[in-house]
Each structure stands twice: as C-alpha cells, then as structure tokens.
From TrEMBL:
Keywords: Membrane, Transmembrane, Transmembrane helix
Protein known as: DUF1538 domain-containing protein
Residue ranges of the TM segments: 13-30, 42-62, 82-100, 121-139, 145-165, 177-200, 206-230
Keyword Magnesium: no
InterPro entries: UmpAB
Record flagged with keyword ATP-binding: no
Pfam families assigned to the protein according to its UniProt record, in alphabetical order: DUF1538
Top-rank taxon: Bacteria
C-alpha cells in the first residue's frame, strides 16, 4: 500500500469525524456566542480521534470479524445444539464484560444511586441477559425459526417485567441495552451468527443471520428488569 493509499484511507475516516466537530464549533461560535477554548488541544484531540478510529476499524476488519465468521462456520462440528447454545452464552457474556460503554453506564448508576445499585452487579446482570439473548439467537439460526416468532414473546415478557420493576430500573434497562451494542459485541457476535447461518443448508443468512443483536439487547433489558424486581423483593 502506497503512502497516498494510506492518506486516502485516513481521509475516509476523517470525513465521518470532521463534520460533527465543525458543526459543534460553528454552533458554539455563532449560536451560543461562546469562544472555543484550547483550540490546540481540540485540534490534537480530533486528530487522535481520527487516527484511533481508523486503526480500530482496520483492526476489527482484520481480527474480530474474520475470526468470528470462521468460528461460526465451524460450530457445526460440535454437532450438539446444547453445546453450541452454551458456547454462544459464554461468548456473549464475556464480550459484554469488556464493553467500555457498559462500564461507564454502570459506574454512573452506582454513583447516582449512592451504591444502592453496585457496578459489578449491574454489569453481570447485563452480561447474563446478553448471553441468554445470544443463545436464543443462535438456537433461532440452528432451528430456522423466524425472528418475529421469538421477538413477540420477548417483547411481551419485557413489558410485563417493566410493569412490576421499579421505575429507575426500567430506565437503566433501556440504557443498558444500548450500552451493550458496542465495538466488541456487534462485530464479534454478528460475525459468529452470519458465519453459522452461511454454513447451514437450511438457513438463509439474510433472514436468520441478522436480528441477533436486537435479541441480545432485549435479553439485557429483561435481565436488568428482573434484577429490579429481585431488589424490591
């Protein structure tokens, strides 16, 4: 790859970052009529963000995505749906443990609740829910079950739990679901699901490979709501 190709690749990333930075600067100067402080720091931070985002996306495309896809394709070797479901739970659980967005959310929840909702308890609850959602998604692929067949009962369960759970846990559950869709979970788990769906003769990757991230997020919602009900009991 030539030097110009490298610059072109970085520019593609910069085009996604610079517009929001420029918009915020213009909004602050013209609408809010406030000066931009630490311009040098802002410029350096923007540059580092572009470089970091580019390297991260490049690394993901070279590591987690192809690895997850190859593992998904080879899961059929186990020839045991229960083992595959357990594997999916373990991957979903531990991938959730390293999500920085979830840790930030859990830290804020612990601080705002003055320790009433410990960070580790919330993280593990979300991890369990995400892992269960991942297992359900993989079982859906293995048995060629339509997503809507699983989604409707899951949504109904979430609504019932949301009715009985404390108000604060309902809000935290929604945010927890969003926090799980981070830079580790999405590429890894989706790659595994698509890899498995591609190798199964009875499965259509377009119909069954996608939707798994939504199911895992709903699993996180349900687990946090269940935690809220348990804390009330």
């Amino acid at each position: 790859m030539s030097f110009f190709d490298v610059l072109k690749a970085f520019w593609e990333t910069a085009k996604n970052v610079l517009p929001i930075v420029i918009f915020l600067c213009i909004f602050r100067l013209i609408v809010l009529r406030k000066p931009i402080e630490e311009i040098k720091t802002l410029a350096l931070g923007t540059l580092l963000s572009i470089i970091g985002l580019h390297l991260f996306l490049k690394g993901i495309s070279l590591s987690l995505i192809p690895l997850g896809d190859s593992v998904g394709r080879d899961l059929v070797v186990l020839n045991n749906k229960y083992l595959i479901a357990i594997f999916a739970f373990v991957v979903g659980f531990f991938a959730t443990m390293v999500e920085p967005g979830l840790k930030s959310l859990a830290l804020e929840v612990e601080e705002i609740s003055t320790g009433a909702i410990p960070m580790n308890v919330l993280i593990n609850a979300v991890g369990i829910g995400f892992g269960l959602g991942m297992s359900i998604g993989i079982v859906k692929i293995l048995n060629n079950i339509p997503t809507k067949t699983i989604l409707f009962p899951v949504l109904l369960l979430a609504m019932i739990l949301g009715y009985f759970a404390p108000r604060e846990f309902v809000d935290i559950a929604i945010d927890s679901a969003s926090a799980t869709t981070g830079p580790v979970n999405i590429p890894l788990n989706m790659a595994i699901a698509l890899g498995l769906s591609k190798i199964l003769e009875t499965s259509d990757p377009l119909l069954n490979g996608f939707g798994i991230i939504g199911l895992t997020s709903m699993g996180a919602v349900i687990s946090v709501l269940a935690l809220g009900i348990l804390s009330r009991i």
